[in-house]
Structure formats: C-alpha cells, structure tokens
C-alpha cells in the first residue's frame, strides 16, 4: 500500500510490482527522499542531465569494465539531489562493489539492487503513474486547505481566528510577523512564547524570522522551522511554522506559501484600521496636552471614544524626549510611537504622541518614585524601538506633576521649555527638571526689552555681521565650543576642523568684541549673550 503522505518516496518504490524483488543494499537513511521522476543511465556522462528527485536506474553497461567508477559518481549525484540509484546486476555487473556501498551510505543515497528481469520501461510507467497520483492528492489537499482558510479570513474571522484554524490544519505552531515586526501567535505558539511583547525572547524571534533560519531552539529543543515570506508593496509579512508536534511535509509548506497573499491583504486592512485609530488617539493626546480640551468631562469623553484608559487617581507629568539627531526624524518618531503603543502602555498609565516634531509622553503616577519606575520602563522600550547605542542617548525633560487631568497643559508647557532650554544650553541628564536649569531658566524668562536688545546687539550682532560679510563661522564655532565645555579638541572633532583653526576662531571672537578671554566676567558676558541669542532664535 502506498503511504498516506503527500510525497512518493524511495520507500514506496519497493511496493511497485516490477520492483518486488529489489533489495536496498545501502543508503537506508535516505529512504524517505521524495521521488518525482525516473531517469535511465546508460551513458557515463549522465551527471549533466540528472534532476533533483530522480530515481536513476542503470543496467550497469557504462561501468561493465570498472564498476568501482560508480563510487566516484555518488557524491555528484547527491549534490544534484538525485533521490535513489537502482542498478541491475547479474548481467553487466555481477555484484556491486563494497566501495560503492560505502559511498552510498556516506551520502544517504538509497542504492537498490534491481532483479535481472526488471523492465525499465515498466518501472518508468509505474513510478510516474504513482507520482502523478500523489501530486493530484497534494493539489486536492492544498485546494481544500486554501478554501477552508480563505473562508475564515474572507468572512471576517480576523487574524486570530485564522491562526487558530491554521493550528488545527497543520497541527504545529505558527507565528506571523508583519512588516513592522509585530508578532501574531497561533494558540499553540502562544503556549510556547508566553513572554511580553518587548521581551528579549520576542526580539530574538523577530531576528530569527528576518534571517530566514531553518532551525531554532525552543524550550531547549532544537527544532526544524519553515519560513514563508510574502513581499507585498506595503504589506509584507512572514509566517513561521515550527516542527513541534509532528514532522513538516511539503503540503504544510505549500499551504503557507499559497495562503500568504490573503494574509498579507488581511494585514493591510488591519493596518489601515489601526492607522485611522492611531490618528484619533494622536489628535486626542495632542489636544489634551496643549489644553484644547477644557473640562475633565470632555477629556474623559474623548478618551472613551478613542479607547484610551485614563487613571482617575494620582498625578500626571508630561515629558519631552531629547534624542540624538539621527533618531529625531519625524517619520521615525511616528513609527516608534505606534510601536510604543503596542506594548499596552496605556494600561500602565503611559501615553505617547508627537508634538512640534518631538516625542512627548504623558505619565500617570502616584509618587515620584513611581514616576521614575515608569520612566525606566519607557527608557527600556524606547532603547529597543529606536536602536539606541546607549541609554545615555535619551534625556527625559520632565514637567512638574499636576493633580488633575484638565491641568496637564501646564506640565506639558513646562516640559517643552525644559526641552528647549536644555537643548540650547547643552544640559544633558537622564531626567531634567526645571530646577536643574539654574541661570538658564532666568535667561529664558527675560522679556523682550530695549535693554535685552541692546545687550545682544553689542555682543552677538558684531559676530553675526562679521560671519555674513566674510563668509566665516565664528558664531557656529563658539556655540559648539560652549557645548563642549570650552574644550578646543572636542570642538575641533565635532566640526571636523583642525584644532588650530578652532583656536584662531575663538581668539578672533574675543578680539572682535574687545573682550579678554582670561577675565571671568568677559567670558560670562559672551556665554550669556550667545545662550540668550539662541533662545530668542528658537522661540
């Protein structure tokens, strides 16, 4: 009886009537190789014509004078994917040499001794009949699976119901990853990967899927996996099938490949819905942070409409994030914010959005220690999402806490000022609060007046005019000089300039203004003027 799997294998060859007397002499480990065609070898240069999956048969005529030559061919046959080798004995070759048998065992190529009466034409006919029957069964099964799974998607079952159906169909766990590296698990897969979405286990799983691995270690078991990729224009996805409960077969792999297009389209629809929902959430958070929603009742109503949970007790703090320039791209931030929300942070009292091209968080907390714990969570997740080289790359500009939802605007405005002042004045710390800004907060609070204008005109204006007239960079160099704590070497590295060039420019600034760099008051005047000028420019 032919096996119930969807592949016609070397083991099935022995069940064919014309091969009833055949004996497997070597290569027993390869008996489960799939056979998809038959080829007859009666010339010595057949190597160039063989195909993967072939059952290669020969009367031995090309090797009648030197049967040991067959041993040299076996590595080449294995390289080309030949399924098995059948040799008729007692006519041109009395018996198959031991060296040939050893080579067949080494490469797991089944070597079958064919009886003398074997008719090659009958073997070809019978094998191909059975191969075609198996292929027809495979197509029928694939069509059944495709209709069953597509019906689940097309009738609104959604990704979760689809993955549950896929579990039952393939009897192995399946993991789906979309283009933004979000993972979806079938019920069996959830049991294998119970960790949180921002865990190292999930990150490693995403990495393995991207690499297209063939084996994985899950719960200390080394298992085979199959990854099917669907590369759509904007909705690419990958499905990972794990060989956990039973051995994977070709039908399982083909099922994933065929259903991939429908899954990709379903993900595209899902992402479109989430995009709309995300815009509503962004608009709500931006209106809340900037004070455009006035009453607590309106805030609660908008939150309920967007599916946002608002804590009824505790305080709120708004936080502007200060990031390296390469991570401050609005598009990158927008993507990071969407991924940040995936971690169910709203249940923890953490919301994220974008204001004025900056990432802004709103954190609900009970005590200052609780706030610091919340910020540690945010830092860990953002480090992963943005691929930060160091946690020191992030500064949280923390506004003072407020006790009511309708007072959040005050905390947000203060956080914005902290971000602006600290960025201009080069203040870097893990958490920056208003009282850490010292004299710089006084500069920011200075109103526009004739005295301030006269001060800037006397000290900064001559530098700006000199740069414009002579096409120099005195002001830029001095600003960088202050950012690096008046360290000429670091300034030169930051500007990609020679140290002597930087030293000359700094000296030229003092000469131009008639100030002495050795006098503390002169240096303080120049530093305050430059910082005040930067603040006025940034407003």
Structure, described:
This protein has 539 residues and is α/β, with parallel strands linked by helices. It has four domains: 10-132, Udp-n-acetylmuramoylalanyl-d-glutamate--2,6- Diaminopimelate Ligase, Chain: A, domain 1, CATH 3.40.1390.20; 156-271, Beta-Lactamase, CATH 3.30.450; 290-442, 2-Layer Sandwich (Alpha-Beta Plaits); 446-538, Arc Repressor Mutant, subunit A (Orthogonal Bundle). Helices cover 50% and strands 14% of the residues. The protein is built from 19 helices and 15 strands. The protein has helices at residues 10-13, 69-79, 98-106, 120-154, 158-170, 187-192, 200-211, 250-289, 296-306, 330-341, 368-386, 408-425, 439-445, 450-459, 461-470, 474-483, 488-495, 499-513, 520-538; strands spanning 23-26, 37-40, 54-58, 84-88, 111-114, 174-178, 183-185, 215-218, 221-230, 237-242, 315-322, 350-355, 358-365, 395-398, 431-432. The strands form three sheets. It has a five-stranded mixed beta sheet with strand order 1-5-4-3-2. Helix 3 links the parallel strand 4 (84-88) and strand 5. Helix 16 (474-483) packs across helix 18 (499-513) and helix 17 packs across helix 18 (499-513). The longest helix has 40 residues, at 250-289. It is elongated and about 115 Å long. The chain starts with 9 loop residues before the first helix and ends with a helix. The model has no long low-confidence stretch (mean pLDDT 86).
């Amino acid at each position: 009886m032919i096996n119930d799997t969807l592949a016609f294998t070397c083991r099935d060859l022995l069940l064919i009537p014309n091969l009833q007397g055949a004996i497997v002499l070597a290569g027993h480990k390869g008996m489960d190789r799939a056979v998809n065609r038959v080829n007859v070898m009666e010339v010595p240069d057949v190597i160039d014509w063989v195909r993967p999956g072939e059952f290669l048969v020969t009367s031995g005529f090309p090797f009648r004078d030197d049967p040991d030559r067959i041993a040299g061919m076996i590595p080449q046959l294995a390289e080309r994917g030949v399924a098995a080798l059948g040799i008729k004995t007692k006519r041109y070759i009395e018996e198959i040499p031991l060296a040939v048998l050893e080579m067949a065992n080494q490469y797991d190529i089944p070597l079958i001794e064919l009886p003398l009466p074997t008719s090659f034409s009958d073997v070809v006919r019978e094998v191909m009949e059975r191969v075609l029957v198996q292929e027809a069964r495979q197509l029928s099964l694939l069509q059944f699976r495709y209709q069953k799974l597509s019906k689940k998607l097309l009738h609104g079952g959604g990704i979760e119901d689809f993955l549950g159906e896929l579990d039952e169909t393939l009897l192995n766990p399946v993991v789906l990853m979309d283009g933004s590296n979000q993972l979806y698990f079938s019920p069996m897969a959830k049991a294998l990967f119970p960790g949180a979405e921002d865990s190292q286990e999930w990150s490693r799983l995403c990495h393995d899927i991207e690499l297209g691995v063939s084996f994985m270690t899950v719960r200390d078991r080394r298992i085979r996996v199959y990854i099917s990729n669907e590369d759509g224009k904007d909705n690419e996805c990958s499905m990972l099938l794990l060989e956990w409960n039973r051995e994977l077969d070709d039908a399982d792999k083909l099922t994933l490949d065929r259903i991939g297009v429908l899954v990709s389209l379903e993900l595209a629809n899902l992402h479109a819905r989430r995009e709309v929902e995300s815009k509503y959430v962004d608009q709500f958070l931006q209106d809340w942070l900037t004070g455009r929603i006035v009453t607590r009742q309106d805030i609660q109503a908008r939150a309920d409409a967007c599916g946002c949970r608002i804590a009824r007790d505790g305080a709120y703090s708004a936080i502007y994030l200060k990031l390296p320039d390469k991570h401050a791209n609005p598009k990158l931030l927008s993507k990071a914010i969407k991924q940040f929300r995936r971690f169910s942070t709203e249940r923890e009292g953490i919301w994220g959005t974008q204001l004025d091209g900056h990432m802004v968080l709103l954190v609900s907390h009970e005590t200052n220690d609780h706030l610091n714990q919340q910020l540690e969570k945010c830092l860990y997740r953002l480090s992963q999402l943005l691929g930060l080289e160091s946690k020191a790359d992030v500064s949280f500009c923390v506004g003072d806490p407020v006790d009511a939802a309708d007072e959040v605007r005050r905390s947000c405005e203060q956080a914005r000022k902290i971000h602006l002042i600290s960025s201009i004045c080069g203040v870097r710390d893990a958490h920056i609060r208003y009282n850490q800004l010292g004299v710089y907060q006084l500069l920011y609070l200075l109103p526009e007046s004739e005295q301030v204008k006269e001060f800037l005109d006397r000290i900064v204006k001559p530098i700006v005019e000199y740069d414009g007239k002579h096409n120099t960079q005195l002001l830029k160099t001095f600003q960088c000089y202050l950012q690096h704590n008046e360290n000429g070497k670091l300034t030169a590295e930051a500007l990609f300039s020679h140290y002597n060039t930087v030293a000359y420019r700094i000296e030229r600034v003092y000469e131009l203004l008639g100030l002495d760099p050795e006098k503390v008051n002169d240096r303080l005047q120049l530093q305050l003027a430059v910082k005040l000028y930067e603040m006025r420019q940034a407003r």
